[in-house]
Design goal:
InterPro entries: Integrase_cat-core, RNaseH-like_sf, RNaseH_sf. By secondary structure, the chain is of the alpha/beta class. It is built from 7 helices and 7 strands, in the order H-E-E-E-E-H-E-H-H-E-H-H-H-E. The strands form 2 sheets. Strands 4-3-2-5-6 form a 5-stranded mixed β-sheet, with helices on both faces. A two-stranded antiparallel ribbon has the order 1-7. The N and C termini lie far apart (74 Å).
Length: 214
């Protein structure tokens, strides 16, 4: 008969051999704070919008990342699903396009509290990339005004005007609209220039626009 002491030692040894569960890091929630934006790559906003495919009777996702100062849609994700990993890839591509990984002062990223942005994958990536992630309070979409304004244009000038028969058709339409928005659609807030043109000019010229307060 095995004594209670031996049973205790055996159980303890088994616990030591059993793989230990990893402790999940808890990232502190940072609320968006008021800022004055004076140039590109200081504040980016990110949000998710839905579109509908009539021919397939299902929704698709459009995740966009915009620069508050120059209004460019730097990168985006279009898909039948949208996860925290998709948000991470979008942010990573944007950082590469704007060559921000080498910068000491990287952009602050503002999002709402959608599942993609409160996910462990997204928070861990922001930490890894050296990005400060701030979240706007619930039910305050006006605090993400620039990305909300872009998605409103996307709805009025693209999604709301077309009945898509397939996901392929919807994907192509959104891609074409984003290209039009960045390269041809003028904005009064950036000297009546398209976002990409304004961004390029601002790299070599001193452009004066109305102060951007958020």
């Amino acid at each position: 008969m095995i004594s209670n002491k031996k049973v205790y030692r055996l159980c303890k040894a088994m616990d030591l051999l059993r793989p230990q569960r990893e402790k999940r890091i808890q990232y502190p929630k940072k609320l968006a704070r008021n800022r004055i934006i004076t140039g590109s790559n200081q504040l980016w906003e990110m949000d998710v919008k839905y579109g509908y495919i009539e021919g397939e009777e299902r929704f698709f996702f459009v995740l966009s990342l915009i620069d508050v100062y120059d209004r460019s849609v730097i990168d985006y994700h279009i898909g039948l699903s949208c996860s925290g990993s998709d948000a991470v890839k979008t942010l990573q591509r944007a950082l590469l396009k704007r060559q921000q990984f080498e910068q000491a002062n990287k952009p602050v990223i503002w999002t709402d509290n959608c599942p993609q942005f409160i996910s462990h994958a997204f928070e861990a990536a922001c930490e890894r990339f050296g990005i400060e992630h701030e979240r706007i309070p619930p039910r305050t979409p006006n605090m993400n005004a620039h990305i909300e304004a872009f998605h409103r244009l996307l709805e009025e000038e693209c999604l709301g005007r077309m009945a898509f028969d397939s996901y392929k058709e919807a994907y192509q339409a959104v891609m074409e609209y984003k290209k039009f928005y960045n390269e041809r659609r003028i904005h009064s807030s950036i000297l009546d220039l398209p976002p990409h043109e304004f961004y390029k000019k601002a790299q070599t010229e001193s452009l004066i626009i109305k102060e951007v307060r958020v």
